[in-house]
Queue: 2 jobs
Job 1
Amino acid sequence: MNQATGAPGTSRPGGRTARVREAVLRAAGDALADKGIGGVDLAEVARLAGVGKTTVYRRWGTVPGLVADLLAEMAESSLPRARTGALETDLAALAGLILKTLTDERQGPLFKAVIAAAASDPQTAAALHRFYRVRIDEWAPCVAEAAARGDVPAGTDADEVVRALSAPLYYRFLVSGDPLDPDTAARAAAAAAAAARAGAYA
């Protein structure tokens, strides 16, 4: 991670630096989940993390800078993609992971807070876009592998298949308030796989 002169989260620190980063990001995530981004204060995050206020201001600078690093850390630590050998079960694993994240008592409110902040803060929006770009890059190869096996048409847009799976889950999470449950996740995965097989994303 760069210091004040660069974007947070651009390298992975070690030793005490890593412990400080972990403590600060954990405190920031808790504050986001509890209060939303408007309730996050750098001095309070420093107090909760047990580190000096100067350290937090010097290394992260602003709340959006802290949120950007939090998203970078979440992308770094998220589970790797499934390798089941079949598109349907790979996509079902992704849908299950999204469901688990969005319904988690801490992660769900945290994502809502970040997504809400991204609507009005360009730095938070850019960090959120990077987070999802990392996750799409992680999971898109399962579609490319399905194309190589002949399970979906050649030239299928793998990124679009991943987006198509994710979209109905996020719609329920953010817009409709309809239940998010394993059946919903399974349907989203099956629908994305069926559409990919039919050539909808070719």
Job 2
Amino acid sequence: MNQIYRKRPFWSLAGPLLGYLVIRGAIQFVIQLGIEIPYVMQIYSDMVNGVIEPTMEAVTEAYINVLGPAFESLVRYQVEIASAASLGTLALTGVLFSGDRKLEKKYGIPPAVKAPASKYWTILVFGAVGSIAATCLMAMAQMAFYDIRYEQAAESMYAASLPVQIIGLGIIIPLAEEMMFRGIMYKRYRERQGFWYSAIWSSVFFSMMHTSMTQVIYTFCLGLMLSYLYEKFGTIKAPVLLHAVMNICSLVFTELGVFAWLGSDAFRLGVAAIAGAFVCSAVFVVIQRIPGQEKENPPEEKNSTLDMFR
């Protein structure tokens, strides 16, 4: 705990999250509007020139026919749109993150103990192997419990070219999400609560940003690990690196056909998931032994309730 008590603890957490969602939604809306306006103007022009009869049925049919390509463009460029929206949130989270570090100095809170750079290999290995294990586990879950939303999300994600996927899904979006959910939310929870309380609630909100149940479960577990890395390494660079490595490796392995090869045989898929989980467990043990922040068990936390904005 950092022992920083804000006057309005609710808004210190809810405010940044609402701002993050509003910025993302506004950028996505503007881009969507920019794509749809030319098609809408075409319908209006056809109505003025008498090409379309001014009846409700004719106008509705025209909208359906003309806006079809617009909807296809929205799906085709979903990665680019999501990346632009995430990029727009960095101004907000960057200012808040910098302000929080200044506030810590004001309260005389010593800077976090940072893990040596020589230990970052653990994050690289965990991310690369973890991307294989996680993808295999999600593929197995998809076989057992088919999730149409997960299927649709995967299709739209891989619609973009690999360089665009790496820049957007592998760099911009992980950076934006980590700045919000670890850099702001987790750290602000940590001002008043212990590790598990802070990690759980920041991971809950992180997982709620995803639509399918498969992704929700996966991102919640990933959020706990990202919070632990932030705590252990003492810098936002650690969770950003893991998030980026997992996303990039998943994209590259998919492009190389690794997951298609593993998924062609159920036994092979299961072995890859188990082996990957074993390697990640071994690396996690190494991470645990890295000298980091001292564990804290504040007395007031023992009787605290799971109030998400406490």
